[in-house]
C-alpha cells in the first residue's frame, strides 16, 4: 500500500496528492473513532457514512485523468473537473445535511456522520486514483 508512494514511475505531484487524500482520511477517521467511542454516534451509522462516502468518492477518483509521459516514463495527472465536482457535492451535502439527515440524527452525531462521509469520500478518491494509476502503469511498463 505505502510502497506505491515511492514508485519511480509515478510523478511526485501525483504521489503527494495521493498522500494528502490518504492522510486527511486517516486523521478524520481517527476523529470519527473517538466520537464513536465516547458515544456521540452509533458505530453502524459511522460505518454506513464511510461506506457511502467510499462509494461516492471512488468514481470521482477515477474521473481524474492519469496519463503516461513518454519521455520521462512516469504516470502523471492533469487538473480536471473531478476535484471541483467532489468539492461541489460535499458543499451541497453540508448545506442540506439538516434537511437530508436531520430526521434521524442531530447535533454532534450529525457532524460526525458528515465527517464519516467525508473520510469515506476522500479514501474513495484515493482508491479511485490508485486504480487509474495502476491501470496506466500496467499498460506502459514492461513486465
Proportion of residues in extended strands: 5-15%
How many DSSP-defined strands? 2
* Helical fraction: 55-70%
On the 0 to 100 scale, the average pLDDT is: 83
Low-confidence parts, pLDDT < 50 over ≥5 residues?
Answer: none
One letter per element, helices H and strands E, the order comes to: HHEEHH
The rounded Rg comes to: 17 Å
Tell me the distance between the termini: 20 Å
Largest sheet: 2 strands, antiparallel
The largest sheet has its strands arranged as 1-2
Tell me the overall shape.
Answer: elongated
> How many domains make up the coordinates?
1
Task: Provide an overview of this structure.
By secondary structure, the protein is mainly α. It has one domain (10-140). 70% of the residues lie in helices and 6% in strands. The protein has four helices and two strands; from the N terminus they run ααββαα. It has helices at residues 12-37, 43-63, 82-101, 108-140; strands at residues 66-69, 74-77. The chain has a two-stranded antiparallel ribbon with strand order 1-2. A hairpin with a 4-residue loop joins strand 1 and strand 2 (74-77). Helix 2 packs antiparallel against helix 3 (82-101). The model has no long low-confidence stretch (mean pLDDT 83).
Amino acid at each position: 500500500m505505502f510502497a506505491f508512494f515511492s514508485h519511480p514511475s509515478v510523478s511526485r505531484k501525483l504521489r503527494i496528492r495521493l498522500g494528502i487524500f490518504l492522510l486527511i482520511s486517516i486523521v478524520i477517521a481517527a476523529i470519527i473513532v473517538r466520537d464513536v467511542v465516547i458515544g456521540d454516534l452509533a458505530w453502524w451509522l459511522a460505518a454506513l457514512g464511510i461506506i457511502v462516502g467510499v462509494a461516492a468518492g471512488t468514481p470521482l477518483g477515477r474521473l481524474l485523468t492519469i496519463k503516461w509521459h513518454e519521455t520521462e516514463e512516469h504516470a502523471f495527472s492533469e487538473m480536471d473537473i473531478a476535484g471541483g465536482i467532489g468539492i461541489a457535492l460535499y458543499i451541497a451535502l453540508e448545506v442540506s445535511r439538516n434537511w437530508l439527515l436531520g430526521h434521524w440524527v442531530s447535533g454532534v452525531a450529525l457532524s460526525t456522520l458528515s465527517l464519516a462521509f467525508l473520510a469515506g469520500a476522500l479514501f474513495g478518491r484515493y482508491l479511485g486514483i490508485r486504480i487509474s494509476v495502476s491501470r496506466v502503469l500496467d499498460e506502459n511498463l514492461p513486465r
